[in-house]
Write a structure and sequence with these properties.
single chain, Rossmann fold, globular, tRNA processing, T6A_TsaE, magnesium, P-loop_NTPase, ATP-binding
């Protein structure tokens, strides 16, 4: 499904989810924020892990930041991977330093609804949903029409 600001497609396997992460890796620049939403087990960390490894250009241990809240990686641009699941109030986000990272790094944010008023206006939303035959992914990126068009061309069924 494609609309003016969103594209939805299927990812039948975990490999497809990882391939999407690798596809995104070369298309993001400093200041881009990828908001990864979906229930537990939807593939958010799997997609982020593939993206980070591709951007680093090597196999790297990329743990889920569920307990550390933020993991950073230095590639050609710094990458921040945050898991906000354990936060109870958007004010706690400010303590993590994400606001500065939003301007200077590539940010991958799991559980982005916890950002509240700190949600970047130009964010790229990736919504993953489990299905009986894999998962579906929707990209919503009104501030990134070129990325959305490329996603539609390369991924939409």
């Amino acid at each position: 499904m494609t609309t003016a600001h969103a594209v939805t497609t299927d990812l039948p396997s975990e490999d497809d989810t990882a391939n999407l992460g690798r596809w995104l890796a070369s298309r993001l620049v400093a200041g881009d924020c990828l908001l990864l939403e979906g229930p537990i087990g939807a593939g958010k960390s799997h997609l982020a892990r593939a993206l980070i490894r591709e951007r680093l250009g090597r196999m790297e241990d990329v743990p889920s930041p569920t307990f550390t809240l933020v993991q950073t990686y230095m590639a050609d641009v710094e990458i921040w991977h945050a898991d906000l699941y354990r936060l109870s109030h958007p004010d706690e986000v400010a303590e993590l330093g994400l606001e500065q990272a939003f301007a200077q790094a590539i940010c991958l944010i799991e559980w982005p609804e916890r950002l509240g008023h700190m949600t970047p206006a130009n964010a790229i939303w990736i919504t993953l949903k489990g299905k009986s035959d894999g998962r579906s992914v929707t990209m919503h990126a009104p501030s990134h029409p070129g990325l959305l068009a490329a996603f539609a061309q390369d991924w939409a069924v």
